[in-house]
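We include the pair:
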Amino acid sequence: MRLLAALGLVVVLAEPARAGIYSPDEPFVFEIDADGNAKPIQYAGGFDILFATLREAATLPQRAGDPPYPSRAAALTRVQQRQAKGVNSLSVEEAAGLTADLIRLNRNDEALNILQPLARDRTRGGFLAYTHLARAHAGRGEWREAADQQQMAVRHTEFPASFARLSKAQLTWLKRVERDYYLPFLSHRADDARRGRVSGLREELDALFPAAAPTKRQTDPVRFVGESGQYEPGRIAAAEKQKLPPDAIAIVQQLVLWHPQDTRLYWLLGELYNADGDVETAAKILDKITFDMGYSNPIVIEHRRVLKSAAEAIGAEKAAEAAKARAEAEEEKARLDQAERDYQKRFWWIVAIGVGLALVLLRYQFREVVRRIRRANRGS
């Protein structure tokens, strides 16, 4: 059922490609508004399904002999078909699709073996080869190499003027995400790796907002605290919120879809939902990170506790409101039913009175007819 829902989402949003990983076989899932910002995907029943599907593509069956997950099986089939054609005979988009699938399958070594000579080919290389090189290196935990390749992609190659069926507005948004957020993301991770901050217990949120100038480091990243200076459910301080772009959630959703195994990015998405006032979604995400993904960062655990408590209170309030609404609806229905019964009684009383009056009139009319007949008989 989850696969069918995910396929339904793909059909509805069927434009190919994603930033960071470009494939003619993957959907572009964001709507771009008139200002060039992306609208986030609804979390429940949309993003969560797509996220799980992409995670499963990189997941081996639990037991030998079990069939692969459907998303993994589809990627394996595409890889076999394209490899059978021969890498050198593939178009630029087909080569992008092949290396994208290899990355999704966590076969980063194979992707690198294809991409490294491809990047040196002036006619078939360029931006797509370098950004896939960056993602493949990131998949191996080689953050410095990933950042270097992304630097080549963003600053030394031309962003594609077209790809599959992407519109100009979609390409413009993807270019912004690549330059302003994905490159800084990889650079931050490379710095953390250099400083030895790679343990989940010591990790902090990726400092992606506000976007830094291309030639400068970010000096004042957003802090997810309320006006009190403490972490609060459902809000952050006004000065901190101003640091977030209008499409911050969509940007991080896209980052998460490139890196569906990355719990730290998923944590950032949860904090953005909380900053936007969606405590329940934020609590679900941090709950998933802690239990399903095994992330033991103490900050996440504490924030989850705060959000879980607030979400339960909100849920209880919603349940009370729903119970009240049901009671009011039932009361209104009972009132309408009683009104209908009263109406029916009045109606039948009116009918009975009308019938009674008609019978009385008929009786008098009959007596009058009989009297006239008798009078006529006596006269004859």
Remarks:
- DSSP finds 13 helices and two strands in the chain.
- Confidence is low (pLDDT under 50) at residues 1-18.
